[in-house]
Design brief:
The chain is mainly β and about 190 residues long. It has one domain. The chain is about 10% helix and about 40% strand. The strands form two sheets. Strands 3, 4, 5, 7, 8, 9, 12 and 13 form an eight-stranded mixed β-sheet that branches. Strands 2-1-6-11-10 form a five-stranded antiparallel β-sheet, with no helix packed on it. About 5% of the residues have low confidence.
């Protein structure tokens, strides 16, 4: 009897791996989504806008010298500054959806609030904050919860779960230096 159960379970594993068993169906990407790799936002339901990668102006790392001395038993902090006081892309939609093709991984997608300082925007990271769901080490209070939808062609979308406050943000994929910046403009009165 136990041999039959083991054989049945092994058959299920093999059939699942071979793609013969029905897989979780994923929706098709939105009509008109660009085929080229990149991060896009659909504005007004008609115009696809490609986001540019955020340009890191400066990156300061603290405690890196002590990392080797302590065999890794020290917290390393980094402060990353992005070029310009504002992102090139300003959105009025408080809950924008970003469509991603060939960039990053759905499991690493995060939206992080940046701090504006005169002519740049910054974000701090710390090795103490790194976890399975926060590979970039961002401060928990700066991470905005997101919903990720994977599409049938391997692309995916990232949408904040709640409205974003006016300000500057980074759509990151596990690192503060490989993200896409955007701003949320204040509501017009």
């Amino acid at each position: 009897m136990p041999t039959k159960i083991v054989t049945f379970v092994l058959c299920l594993i093999v059939l699942s791996a071979a793609g013969i068993l029905p897989q979780e169906s994923r929706p098709a990407p939105p009509a008109g989504m660009p085929a080229a790799a990149g991060v896009y936002c659909l504005q007004g339901g008609a115009k696809w806008i490609k986001l540019d990668p955020a340009l890191v102006e400066d990156s300061k790392i603290r405690s890196l010298d002590r990392l080797m001395e302590t065999a890794g038993l020290v917290i390393v902090n980094a402060n990353n500054a992005y070029l310009g006081a504002y992102a090139a892309l300003e959105l009025s939609d408080r809950r924008p959806t970003f469509y991603v093709r060939g960039v990053g991984s759905p499991k690493d997608a995060q939206i992080v609030r940046l701090t504006r300082k005169r002519d740049k925007r910054t974000v701090q990271t710390s090795s103490a904050e790194i976890s399975v769901t926060n590979r970039g080490g961002f401060k928990r209070g700066e991470i905005q919860p997101v919903a990720v939808t994977s599409f049938s062609d391997g692309s995916f979308s990232v949408t904040p779960e709640g409205d974003l406050k006016p300000g500057e943000y980074l759509l990151a994929f596990g690192s503060a230096v490989t993200g896409f910046d955007f701003g949320i403009s204040p509501a017009k009165k």
